[in-house]
Amino acid sequence: MTPATTRQVVLVARPEDVPRPEHFEIRQARVPDLAEGQLLVRNDYLSVDPAMRGWVSPVANYAEPVAIGQVLRSFAVGEVLASRHPDHQPGDVVMGMFGWTEHAVVDATTVWRTLTETDLPRSLSLGVLGLNGLTAWAGVHRVLRPRPGSTVVVSTAAGAVGSVVGQLAADLGARTVGIAGGPTKATRCVQEFGYDVGLDYRAPDFPDQLAEATPEGVDHYFDNTSGPVTDAVMARLAPHSSVLVCGTAAITSWDPWPTGPRTERIILTRRARIEGFLAFDHLDALPEAVTDLADKIRTGQLAHREHVLHGLDQAPGAIAMLYDGSNDGKLVIQLR
Amino acid sequence: MTPATTRQVVLVARPEDVPRPEHFEIRQARVPDLAEGQLLVRNDYLSVDPAMRGWVSPVANYAEPVAIGQVLRSFAVGEVLASRHPDHQPGDVVMGMFGWTEHAVVDATTVWRTLTETDLPRSLSLGVLGLNGLTAWAGVHRVLRPRPGSTVVVSTAAGAVGSVVGQLAADLGARTVGIAGGPTKATRCVQEFGYDVGLDYRAPDFPDQLAEATPEGVDHYFDNTSGPVTDAVMARLAPHSSVLVCGTAAITSWDPWPTGPRTERIILTRRARIEGFLAFDHLDALPEAVTDLADKIRTGQLAHREHVLHGLDQAPGAIAMLYDGSNDGKLVIQLR
Question: Which residue range or ranges hold the Enoyl reductase (ER) domain (chains A, B) (predicted)?
């Protein structure tokens, strides 16, 4: 059952901005023997997340960069084929940081959780029931905490995180305004993800549309983009508003460091609070978040969307899709 | 005892950036009769505060702008000459929003407090025992809350607010780094206000000096300036750091709106919290702050410095002194 070799995606060049196919190579590697405390996992799905850009970036970040020659760090979900750790048995379905590889020999510490929602597709553990869901859930319930009637604005609102943010904020009684790229995604914000308003930031009069959609200002902003979208939202912040900075998807390069309108005067006069957010700081919320989100999926209260690529050969080009907007839901790579 | 007329400083033109003498006129005005609930105050000292720039600014701000033809809004301290309010008696010394006028007829609601620290100079109620002291006290104790051993950086560190921030943070066991304009003020940060390090932001190698002074990064930043000083400090933020935005003294004009390095990536990767601060939101802390700060003054634990101008004729040029750095301590205008 244990294969002798496996196929892996290895980092061969450090990208200066968005990782593209030329930064990776697919290699055949030997599957090592299990040491004490290790598992052999056969990955079913690999995750494609914006955070991976940071993991291969030369710019200082919150995680050690992946070294040249290493398998790309990533979330994955799959089945335990062999285990030398008492908490994990062959046949368990586990989700964790197993990397872009068909088979992974990993320490048990890389496991985030063993799936219990056996009635739901495994791939969801990489998205709405994984890092994306946790990000949205903790961002809404622990940081922004919108009150009923407040106005919540979300950038990349039709994306894997944003689509959940909007629905959770609406559940709390907030008025939600989703911002996405293009009319299709803007419409999807309203029709599929329940936003009160969906705005296309590529529209020439986007700032005016935003002003019209937020007549009393913006109480909470869940920011996945930085850039001009964020500048437009910042200008509309209401007194005592809060901003969660979760991603900077609109900035393709930080060298040279980009400039933008100074925010200090807005922060001061609105007494706004801006906060950096990393889901890894909220791992303790994962069980509660997964339980809550899975229940909402079962009862049809939580819409979500997946974009599935097929086979490891699709992986090297996948991260760039997150930045040109060509993915159409949470991006995963199905291996079997 | 009640004069028939009084001299006042009136706004006659709206400044686009820093208010200067040409925006004001000194006029003689009739002292009106007291209505029910009003007091006649003879001002002893007028305050000169950076906030006053906002009060006359055409840019949206947290307070209604002073209208053309009105007496300039300001803090002042003086003696009650006549009262039609039961809480105030002739002879009381009161501090409040009485404006740049020799005599003021005001509603009792404009009184911030009746002075009880009769052993200390009245003028202190406009600075270290007034808005400046409250700003520093609430900023340190309610917002930044530095832990022992953490690194606290303060801009305009030798100023009326910054000098108190540094001393209160040091009292809590923090390492304090003060940033001021010119070698004299940088030295004063250390010798007079007890900072561990004093830096002159005009030094050509200021960013290197800042890096050397904050080897483990910046845990808390009390920002009074915005601009290049703030950009240098932001680049040194430590994980889970916090920034209090209290003023933007380095920006002389917001039209056109100035640009600077984007902060979203720093906020995100450091999971920093940036918060706008207005002392007016913390008026409930005034009694506790004044008691604490007055005690520290009496026991010699809290250094403070005043710069006194003499006579109402000095007032129109006083606000600009805050922006060219020519004041040398909390700026007040003594009227008698």
Answer: 19-333
Distance from CA of B7 to the nearest CA of A (A): 32
Interface of B with A (CB under 8 A): 54, 59-62, 223, 226, 230, 239, 245-248, 251, 254, 257-278, 281
Handedness of CA A250, A255, A261, A265 (dihedral sign): positive
Residue B179: closest CA among B239, B227, B131: B227
Question: Which residues fall within 8 angstroms of residue B94, CB to CB, at 6 or more apart?
Answer: B39, B41, B77, B78, B79, B80, B88, B111, B112, B113, B114, B115
Q: CA gyration radius for chain A?
A: 20
Going along chain B from its start, the domains and CATH numbers come out as: 5-127+304-334 (3.90.180.10), 131-280 (3.40.50.720)
Sort out which chain A residues have CB atoms less than 8 A from B263's CB and list them: 263
By C-alpha distance, the chain A residue nearest B280 is A271
Q: CB distance A276–B276 less than 8 Å?
A: no
Question: Would you give the distance in Å from CA A262 to the centre of its chain?
Answer: 27
pLDDT, position B209: 98
Q: Tell me, what's the ipTM?
A: 0.90
In our burial notation (b when 16+ CB lie closer than 10 A, e otherwise), range B228-248 reads ebbbbbbbbbbeebbbbbbbb
Q: Using one digit for the tens of pLDDT, what is the confidence trace for A204-233?
A: 999 999 999 999 999 999 999 999 999 999
**Is A257 in contact with B261 (Cβ distance < 8 A)?**
yes
